[in-house]
Amino acid sequence: MFTVKCLNPISDQGLDLFTSNFEVMDDLNAADAVLVRSAGMHDLEVPDSMIAVARAGAGVNNIPLDAYAERGITVFNTPGANANGVKELVIAGLLLASRDIIGGYNWVKENAKLDDLPKAVEKQKKAYAGNELKGKSIGVIGLGAIGVLVANICNRLGMKVYGYDPYVSVRSAWSLSRMVNHSSSLDEIYKKCDYITIHVPCIDATRGMIGKEAIYKMKDGVNILNFARGELVDDLAIKEGLATQKVKHYVTDFPNKNVAGLDGVITIPHLGASTEESEDNCAEMAVEQLMNFLENGNIVNSVNYPNCNLGDLESEARITVHHKNLPNMIGQLTSILAGEDYNIVNMLNKSKGAWAYSMLDVEKRPTKDIIRKMREIDGVVRVRVL
């Protein structure tokens, strides 16, 4: 029996997938795993028994990834599960930036009781005229699950699409429309595009990437959309860009006191994945990944350990080892088994940066002495037997 604690409300669509081998409980200290959405975990004390955290969403800024890796706690996310919901809001953002829909809406609301409203509308509507998206150029920075969908739909809207992602996956590349222009640098995006939309994770290399220098290289009157993470954009640089009219509009799903209320800024209260469908998809994906890991030891969509999948457990036992990515680690693990006359019927080892994960299927259950010896290897942080 595996125990799971939910730190946020999780869609029943996902929770209903748990079999009788799982129990959702309230006691964090007795839980094997956690399901979380936005709850902060950096200052949360979790028990040594905790072996997994599944984030029902893509962003993991609320989870201490490195600290958990050092404890052998695997952290999962659900990339792509909310991609369609975010894509649709990006399109809404494009329309809000190109047409003064908000200004027109507010005028109608303020003048709703005019006796001859239709006549007044005809006189006033020119004040809210805008531009069509067809024929305009858009740069999509980041071609992951969301970026690919945005690029493809913008192409179907008749826009000239430039995509930039030096680390684009094979899966994304196959999904991308052949009509999307592949940019070799961000400078090309900045120079050519009327609209720029960002779809990259927030890491040290990308934090503040849209700053004063980047905006200086952009076309005059550029529209910048940020539905990825607020920290990717330098608020002060945006404020300066708006003041000089270098930036026409900044559309963001992450309002804060620096940008909210500024002329030219369209702020949306973090609604990108706030659809019933996205929440259901994220919950289902998180639960399925968690069950697969707890029951079979397989890692799919981890952000602090490598993906590693041996399928369903079919041998007598499976040993999984979280360890540092060090030389001769596999040799030490297999030597312990060989010394006790254990036959390995299947094995897999993967690494991700400083950390690695090994799976060893054996013909008989390992003894406590074997597991003790494995845990004593320098660099091993967790050993589990399934």
Structure write-up:
The chain contains 13 helices and 16 strands. It is α/β, with parallel strands linked by helices. Strands 8-7-6-9-10-11-12 form a seven-stranded parallel sheet, sandwiched between helices. Helix 3 (83-98) crosses helix 6. The longest helix has 21 residues, at 276-296. The two termini are 12 Å apart. The mean pLDDT is 96.
One letter per element, helices H and strands E, the order comes to EHEEEHEHHHEHEHEHEHEHEEHEHEEHE
Overall structural class, as computed from helix and strand content, comes to alpha/beta
Using the CA coordinates, give the radius of gyration: 25 Å
Strand percentage lies at 15-25%
Helix content: 25-40%
Q: Given the structure, what is the number of helices?
A: 13
User: Which whole number gives the mean pLDDT?
Assistant: 96
By DSSP, the count of extended strands is: 16
Largest sheet: number of strands, sense, barrel closure: 7 strands, parallel
Name the overall outline: elongated
Low-confidence stretches: none
| Gap between N and C termini | 12 Å
Order of strands, widest sheet: 8-7-6-9-10-11-12
Pathway: Amino-acid biosynthesis; L-serine biosynthesis; L-serine from 3-phospho-D-glycerate: step 1/3
InterPro entries: ACT-like_dom_sf, ACT_dom, D-isomer_2_OHA_DH_cat_dom, D-isomer_DH_CS1, D-isomer_DH_NAD-bd, NAD(P)-bd_dom_sf
Catalytic activity: (R)-2-hydroxyglutarate + NAD(+) = 2-oxoglutarate + NADH + H(+); (2R)-3-phosphoglycerate + NAD(+) = 3-phosphooxypyruvate + NADH + H(+)
GO molecular function, one term: phosphoglycerate dehydrogenase activity
